[in-house]
């Protein structure tokens, strides 16, 4: 089975630059990523090692209005959030080291997956970035998106070295920040966990009444709630000024810790 890791988190914004400015003021470094011409969207990116956060918004409303779920499920949800005036977590991307094998597995498990496509965006300095990607053309529950799957060119070690050499992965003034945990709340907890177990081909374990998936050194935590959605990100490596604090921008919630918070 292909090796899976948590690649990045997509956050829907009304104005990606405005949100990036707020985060930069808090000591988190975000820069313009580029535009997705085919979807009419653009983004700002903040890297925390290879794991990064994408602030996505609509850059071409006319083009964005033509996008259907089958054109890219997560992007479609981000576009819907934009026109609804919502700023919140959208979903996460899962990185595979063999996207064809991952795709075949999910097809055999009867998930309504899209075809594997080549995605691309143009950076502000004109560099064309490419990747392989596929989506699941549905939602898990009302307003609860599926993750999507991605594979970048080269190994993780090669990519990280390249991104550091380009100054894209660098220290944040708020500390040596790492995104360690994603917190999901679910109104149908056990059903959703079973579905994610099938998605990831991995069993969750129970800890303090919550279900945990480990992906490398990172954790996806599922908790009982009154709705179903990604609700917060937990960071480690925060400096003394922000350790123990929470940053909230509309429905976007970041929790900062100084030390490793994982238990097992």
From TrEMBL:
Protein name (database record): Glyoxalase-like domain-containing protein
Gene3D superfamilies xref list: 2,3-Dihydroxybiphenyl 1,2-Dioxygenase, domain 1
Domain Glyoxalase-like, first and last residues per copy: 6-199
Domain of life: Bacteria
